Amino acid sequence: MSLANHLHLTASVLEIEVLRYTPSGIPAINCRLEHASEMVEAGQLRQVKAVMKSVAFGAVAEQLARQDIGSSWNFKGFVATPRGAKHVVFHIQEFAQE
């Protein structure tokens, strides 16, 4: 059986930290993304808002570092829980204009 962990999220850049480098020299950047939409749940229309801690590495991190706060994108990646944490982090693997 194959398990999937894929997240596609349309969101805007809420906060972005300074580009940093891992001990092995890979570019990395932390950011927070904000999503807002209307979804149907249990037959009812619902306003949905979410802020997600996110991280990107390599060329994606370098590209994300150049984006403006408030700019909206379609993000693709996966979620994982960092060691010792109680929350998930969205690992951005690619993003493009919405």
Automatic annotation (TrEMBL):
Family annotation (Pfam families): SSB_1 (PF22657)
Entry keyword annotation includes Ribonucleoprotein: no
Listed GO biological process terms: DNA replication, synthesis of primer
Gene3D superfamilies (UniProt xref): Nucleic acid-binding proteins
Listed InterPro entries: NA-bd_OB-fold, Prisomal_replication_PriB
Record-level Gene Ontology MF annotations: single-stranded DNA binding
Keyword set includes Cytoplasm: no
GO cellular component: primosome complex
Source domain of life: Bacteria
UniProt xrefs under SUPFAM superfamilies: Nucleic acid-binding proteins
Keyword set, alphabetical order: DNA replication, DNA-binding, Primosome
Family per similarity comment: Belongs to the PriB family.
Protein role: Involved in the restart of stalled replication forks, which reloads the replicative helicase on sites other than the origin of replication; the PriA-PriB pathway is the major replication restart pathway. During primosome assembly it facilitates complex formation between PriA and DnaT on DNA; stabilizes PriA on DNA. Stimulates the DNA unwinding activity of PriA helicase.
Record HAMAP family: PriB
Subunit structure of this chain's protein: Homodimer. Interacts with PriA and DnaT. Component of the replication restart primosome. Primosome assembly occurs via a 'hand-off' mechanism. PriA binds to replication forks, subsequently PriB then DnaT bind; DnaT then displaces ssDNA to generate the helicase loading substrate.
Name of the protein: Replication restart protein PriB
Native organism taxonomy: Bacteria, Pseudomonadati, Pseudomonadota, Betaproteobacteria, Burkholderiales
Gene expressing this chain: priB
